[in-house]
């Protein structure tokens, strides 16, 4: 019989698709589950801050809520690969003219840009699908 304590979510790759056409863009993002320990720490920190504000009869500002969204998504992204979906090197996607290296500043730049919200929305939807992080 299997020991259920050994059943743990795994990282998985998510294909980013064009929000209008549904076609693969050539960006594969490695993400963790919403229940990942590192992500849980970030979520707890956000909850602690919200509770501190509530004790003072204050609420989070819209900018704080958006910043927290970015923190969660940035923590959930563990890597990426930008590649040509057609096999032609000229078709490798870029961000502001370059293929961005996977570093925190680049992840944050993309997630922070208002017109790129669709990128973060796709990551958010994927990390919430708990069952997809378990081997079948």
* Cα distance spanning the termini: 16 Å
- Helical percentage: 25-40%
Placed side by side, the strands forming the largest sheet appear as 1-2-3
Low-confidence stretches: none
Summing up helix and strand content along with how strands pair, one would put the structural category as alpha+beta
Given the C-alpha coordinates, what overall shape results? Answer: flat
The biggest beta sheet reads: 3 strands, antiparallel
Order of helices and strands: EEHHEHH
The fraction of residues assigned to DSSP E strands is 5-15%
Mean pLDDT value: 94
Please give the count of helices. Answer: 4
Radius of gyration, CA atoms, in whole angstroms: 17 Å
The count of β-strands is 3
């Amino acid at each position: 019989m299997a020991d259920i304590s050994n059943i743990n979510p795994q990282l998985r790759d998510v294909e980013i698709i064009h929000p209008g056409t549904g076609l693969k863009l050539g960006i594969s993002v490695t993400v963790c589950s919403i229940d990942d320990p590192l992500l849980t720490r970030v979520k707890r920190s956000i909850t602690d801050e919200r509770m501190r504000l509530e004790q003072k009869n204050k609420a989070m500002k819209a900018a704080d809520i958006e910043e927290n969204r970015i923190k969660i998504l940035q923590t959930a992204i563990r890597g990426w690969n930008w590649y040509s979906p057609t096999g032609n090197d000229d078709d490798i996607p870029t961000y502001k003219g370059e293929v961005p290296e996977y570093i925190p500043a680049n992840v944050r730049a993309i997630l922070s840009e208002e017109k790129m919200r669709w990128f973060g929305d796709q990551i958010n939807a994927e990390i919430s699908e708990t069952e997809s992080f378990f081997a079948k």
